[in-house]
Predict the 3D structure of the following.
Amino acid sequence: MALPVLVADPDRKWLGDAKIHLKESGYEVDAVDNGRDAQLALFRKRYFAIILNFDLKNHTGMQVLKFIKFNHPGLKVVLVLNSEEYLQEYFDYEDLQKLGAQEVLVRPFENHKLVDSLEGQQNFSQLIKNLKKRTGQSEESEEDVDEDEFTKVRIKEFFSAKHVIFDVYIKLREGKYLKILHAGDSFSKERIDKYINEKSIEFLYFKEHDRKKYIRFCNHLARKILGNKKADTKMKVAMVKNVAEKFVEEVFVEGIKPSILDQGKEICETVFKLVEGEKDLFKLLKEFQEFDPSAYSHAFLVSLFSAMIIRQFEWQSKLTTETVSLACLFHDIGKMKLPQEINEKRPEDMNAAELEQYQMHPEFGIELLHANRSIPPSVKQIIYQHHECTDGTGFPKGVKDNKIFTLSKIVHVADEFSHIMVVNDCAPPAALKIMLENEANIARYNGVVLEHFMKVFVDPKILQEIEEKKKKIC
């Protein structure tokens, strides 16, 4: 059954167009043009969500929000603002979230943004229930599409439900794509394998506005797979890597919004379950080389290795691991404020002016996150200090060991280790050797953190035996 949605907007022409678009997207839609009728509709019927214009008459949008908060606290609210001035002069996203808005759209925007916003509020079962399913696969079709409209995932790492939840493409050449699976099609592994084996296709593509769907699906699937003791550890890591990469990409492209932040917290909980539940993870990490140089893959690697380091400390906890994982996913967000030409360079290849600007990115990150009260202060501190070194040679402030947050020291080691792996295109043991072969380099890291980091690659049973022997000696 289609999910019921109420749309309340004073612009009747827009209201009619939005109603048609939402119905075509599979929703059951009621539409009203004033606040009083909106409240009456909410009184008479139970809705999945409301798309609410702030500038309603005959009961304002603010009054309707208060009515919803008191009478329907579980209702999903997509708030429409007619101008950026509201965010600049009266509210910010945090204020609107407190009023009950899970998502905010500022005009002008295209109608597909409405659907994206509603899908961002759905859990996985709702997403599947609202999908128009068909048996078999539709015919493949060529399309001329701007490359900027797409995101991609490695074809061997692509996961799907029984029915495909969005259109899937392969790239034929610049600007030319072939749609191989349509939303609602039965998923065909045979068709995917054909492109791997016969066409040597490396990536699958889907529209950027479908990325939220993929994140939600992968989060759902990762939780199921992690609970399956028979599932392969390598598959579990690949699944968590997949969803973490797409999450970071979404943040870099769309910014931090309430609905995506909730998904980030779920990913961090999944990272904790992976690290805690997979006792042979150390074996995989010795050989782990499934990465690419992108910022999105880097964020996952830093999160994974940081979580493994924390696991070695006696004071480890679920909250600490999830806090650090969230900081790792956001740790380079300040690079969004750097020019593209700097982001494309390694620090050793930058001139003095570029390096000075690059070393501002932790501060830029804090500027971007400062007003977001949903992100804990400890996460912001880790982001701010993740490039500080024990010997005082780091940035942005060049403080020494005793002035650096312990969790920042952990992320610093994981961050630099990840870069060494990518730059040298090597597996973890070789990267560890490079990291430790220079005494001056070792002085940059906290000794206790470095010691615990080396334990990441050792069988936990051996470490436990060593600890037991120590206790006997004492």
User: Anything to note?
Assistant: Residues 4-121 form a domain with the Rossmann fold fold (CATH 3.40.50.2300).
